[in-house]
Design a protein that fits this description.
Length: 618
C-alpha cells in the first residue's frame, strides 16, 4: 500500500486542480484568443478548411471542437469573413459565437472541457519523470507545485495554446532524452512521434530542433571526455556521431512526416485558389521576402499544399514575435517589449513560496562547493610544478565530465530553461507570464529534486534535529503555497504574488493576459443586474460582445470619448484599456496614453473579478 500512496496522492491533487478549474471556468466569459480558436477548430472538423487562424497549428483547436460536433450549431458560411476575406478570424469568430443564433456560453463551456485533459497528461508526465529521477515520494512535492500553480489552473481552462505548449515541450523532451540514454527503436519512434505532435500544437515548439541538437552534442561530448586519451576520445566521438546523428535526423523526419496527413485533412476542402490567394496575400507581407516566396511557391505545388500551410503559420509566428504587441507594464506602454519584462512578471505572477523554495534549492546546490578541499592546498606561495598543474587540470575535467554524466537529465532541463528564457527575453511579444509557462514543469521538478537531496544529506549525516526542523519548514511552505493558490479562487488569471499585495494590486504592474483577458464580462452583467443598474457605459477588452450579456443596459464607450459625456453615468472599463489610457509612452510609441487620466480623481465603486473597474461619475 505504501508504494501506491504517492500515486494516490498525486491523482487526488490533480483531481482537485481539475475541480477548481471546472468550477471557475463556468463563471467566465470568453477570453480574447478563444474568439479565434473555438470557431477555427469547429471549422476545421466540420468544413475541413484551414482559412481561419493559420498562425497556430490545428491540434489543440481540433481537441476543443470535438464536443461541439454533437451540438446543433449554426455555421455562418455566408459571411464575407468566411467567403472572401483573408484570415478574418476575429470578425468571423464574434459573429459565430454571438450573432448567429448560437448559445455562446454553451459553446465556450464545452470547448474548454477537453483542454483540461492537457493538465491531466502534463501531471502524468511530471509524476513519471520525477519518480524516475528521485523516487516515488518526492513526486508528491512536484505535483503539489504543479496542481496549485495559479497560472496553470488559469490557462488550463481556456482554449489557448499555452498549457498545450508546456505539455508538448515537456513530453517531447522526456522522450528525446529517453532515446539519447537508451537509443533503441521504440524510444526513437516515440521521440519522433512526440516531436511531430509538438509541431502541431504550437509553432514555438520549433525551438525543439536546435535544442535537441545542442543537448545531443553535450551528450556525445560527455560520453567521450576522458582527459588522458584525447586521440582515442576523438575517434570514439566520431563513432558515436556516426551512430546518433542519422537517428536524430530520422526523429525529425518522423515528426515532419506526421505533419503531412494532419494538414492534408485540414486543407482537403480548402479550395486551391483560395489557399493560394490567402497565402500570397499573407506571405507577401513577410519582412523576410525569400521566406514569403518559398511559402507561395509551395502553395502552388499540389503535393506540397499541406506543408505550405504549415510553413505559412510558422513564418507568421516569427513575424508576430518580432512585431510585438501594445502592452502596459510598470506604468509604461509600448509595442516593442522590455528585456526585463519576463523576469519581473515571473517574480510577480508566481507564488512567493516558489521563489523561497528556489532560493533554498540554489543555496543548497552551492553550499558544498564552499567546503570542498582545493587541489592547491599545501602549495600556496610556491611555484606549482607543471606535472601538478596537468594533474589538477585533468582532475577538474574529469569532475566536470562525471557531473554532467551523473546529472545529464537535470542539466538538459536547466539548458532548456536558459534557452527558452533567453529567447523570450529577446522577444517583443510581452503580453503575459503564460508565454514562459513551458519552463514551469522543469522548475517544479528541479526544486523537488533539491528538496530530496537536502533530506538525503541530513539523513546521511544523522542530523535528526535538523531533519525535523526542515520537515516542518517545508511542510509550512507547501501549506502556504496551497493556501495562496486557493485564496485567489475563482479569479486565477488575476493572481499576483504576496510581494505586491495580491491580485487587487495587479493592475498597477501589468494587464493583458496577466490580469485582464476579458474573462469577467459575465460577472459584470451579474453585478449590474444585482444592483438594478439600468444603463452602464462599457469600454471592454476581451473575447465577448458586451451587448450579448448586458443587452439594452449597455452603452458604448471608448477612451477617446469626451469625458463630460460620462457625467451622471455608470462607467465600466477593462483594466487593460484603463491602464493604457493613463500610462507613460515609451520612446517611439506614438499613440496617446493619457485619455483616462481624468479618472484618477474618482475612486472605483467596485472592481469586478480584479479586472473590470466600475465607476459612478456624478
Amino acid at each position: 500500500m505504501n508504494k501506491k500512496l504517492p500515486i494516490i496522492f498525486s491523482i487526488i491533487l490533480v483531481a482537485i486542480m481539475i475541480i477548481l478549474a471546472v468550477i471557475s471556468l463556468r463563471q467566465e466569459s470568453a477570453i480574447m484568443d478563444e474568439v479565434a480558436h473555438i470557431p477555427a477548430g469547429y471549422s476545421y472538423l466540420t468544413q475541413r478548411d484551414y482559412r481561419l487562424n493559420p498562425e497556430h497549428p490545428p491540434l489543440l483547436k481540433d481537441l476543443s471542437a470535438v464536443p461541439l460536433l454533437w451540438q446543433n450549431i449554426n455555421f455562418p458560411s455566408q459571411l464575407k469573413s468566411w467567403q472572401s476575406e483573408v484570415n478574418s478570424q476575429w470578425d468571423f469568430g464574434f459573429n459565430f459565437l454571438y450573432n448567429s443564433g448560437n448559445d455562446a456560453d454553451k459553446i465556450i463551456f464545452w470547448s474548454r472541457l477537453p483542454m483540461l485533459l492537457l493538465l491531466i497528461f502534463l501531471g502524468f508526465f511530471i509524476y513519471k519523470w520525477t519518480k524516475k529521477l528521485y523516487g516515488p515520494w518526492i513526486t508528491v512535492i512536484a505535483i503539489i507545485l504543479f496542481s496549485f500553480d495559479p497560472t496553470f489552473i488559469a490557462h488550463g481552462r481556456y482554449v489557448a495554446t499555452d498549457v498545450g505548449a508546456a505539455f508538448a515541450f515537456f513530453s517531447a523532451i522526456y522522450f528525446f532524452i529517453n532515446w539519447i540514454k537508451k537509443p533503441v527503436l521504440k524510444n526513437l519512434i516515440l521521440a519522433g512521434v512526440f516531436f511531430g505532435l509538438a509541431q502541431m500544437i504550437k509553432f514555438s515548439l520549433f525551438l525543439l530542433v536546435p535544442y535537441f541538437g545542442l543537448i545531443l552534442i553535450v551528450w556525445l561530448i560527455i560520453r567521450t571526455s576522458t582527459p588522458d586519451e584525447w586521440k582515442s576520445d576523438f575517434r570514439r566521438f566520431l563513432i558515436l556521431c556516426k551512430f546518433y546523428i542519422p537517428k536524430f535526423i530520422l526523429i525529425l523526419i518522423i515528426g515532419y512526416i506526421l505533419i503531412y496527413p494532419v494538414y492534408f485533412f485540414h486543407i482537403s476542402n480548402y479550395p486551391y485558389e483560395k489557399q493560394l490567394s490567402d497565402t500570397t496575400f499573407i506571405a507577401s507581407q513577410f519582412p523576410l521576402k525569400p521566406a514569403g516566396q518559398l511559402v507561395i511557391w509551395m502553395a502552388k505545388q499540389p503535393i506540397l499544399r499541406p506543408y505550405a500551410q504549415y510553413a505559412l503559420g510558422l513564418f507568421m509566428t516569427f513575424q508576430r514575435v518580432t512585431g510585438g504587441n501594445t502592452t502596459f507594464f510598470l506604468g509604461d506602454v509600448t509595442n516593442k517589449g522590455w528585456h526585463n519584462y519576463f523576469p519581473i512578471i515571473y517574480i510577480l505572477k508566481t507564488p512567493l513560496v516558489l521563489h523561497i523554495l528556489t532560493i533554498i534549492a540554489l543555496l543548497f546546490l552551492a553550499w558544498p562547493a564552499r567546503h570542498r578541499k582545493t587541489s592547491l592546498r599545501g602549495v600556496a606561495g610556491r611555484q606549482i610544478p607543471k606535472f601538478l598543474l596537468k594533474k589538477i587540470f585533468r582532475n577538474k575535467l574529469e569532475q566536470i565530465g562525471n557531473f554532467f554524466r551523473n546529472y545529464f537529465t537535470e542539466m538538459a532541463m536547466l539548458i532548456f530553461i536558459i534557452i527558452y528564457w533567453a529567447v523570450s527575453i529577446q522577444s517583443n511579444l510581452n503580453i503575459g507570464v503564460r508565454h514562459i509557462l513551458p519552463t514551469f514543469p522543469f522548475i517544479f521538478i528541479l526544486i523537488s529534486g533539491q528538496i530530496k537531496r537536502i533530506f538525503d544529506y541530513l539523513k546521511k549525516k544523522n542530523k535528526k534535529m535538523a531533519l525535523g526542523v526542515w520537515s516542518l519548514v517545508f511542510g509550512f511552505l507547501l501549506l502556504w503555497y496551497v493556501l495562496s493558490s486557493i485564496s485567489i479562487f475563482p479569479y486565477y488569471l488575476t493572481y499576483f504574488s504576496e510581494l505586491v499585495g495580491g491580485a487587487k494590486n495587479g493592475y498597477i504592474y501589468a494587464t493583458d493576459s496577466n490580469l485582464d483577458w476579458g474573462q469577467d464580462l459575465k460577472r459584470l452583467a451579474k453585478w449590474v443586474d444585482e444592483n438594478n443598474i439600468q444603463k452602464i457605459k462599457v469600454d471592454y477588452f476581451g473575447g465577448a460582445t458586451v451587448q450579448y450579456y448586458l443587452k439594452d443596459k449597455y452603452e458604448e464607450w471608448h477612451a477617446e470619448y469626451d469625458p463630460t459625456k460620462a457625467k451622471g453615468s455608470w462607467l465600466a472599463i477593462s483594466a487593460t484599456f484603463l491602464q493604457q489610457g493613463r500610462a507613460t509612452p515609451t520612446k517611439g510609441f506614438e499613440f496617446k496614453t493619457d485619455r483616462y487620466l481624468w479618472l484618477n480623481q474618482y475612486e472605483p465603486i467596485t472592481v469586478i473579478g480584479n479586472s473590470i473597474f466600475v465607476y459612478y461619475i456624478p
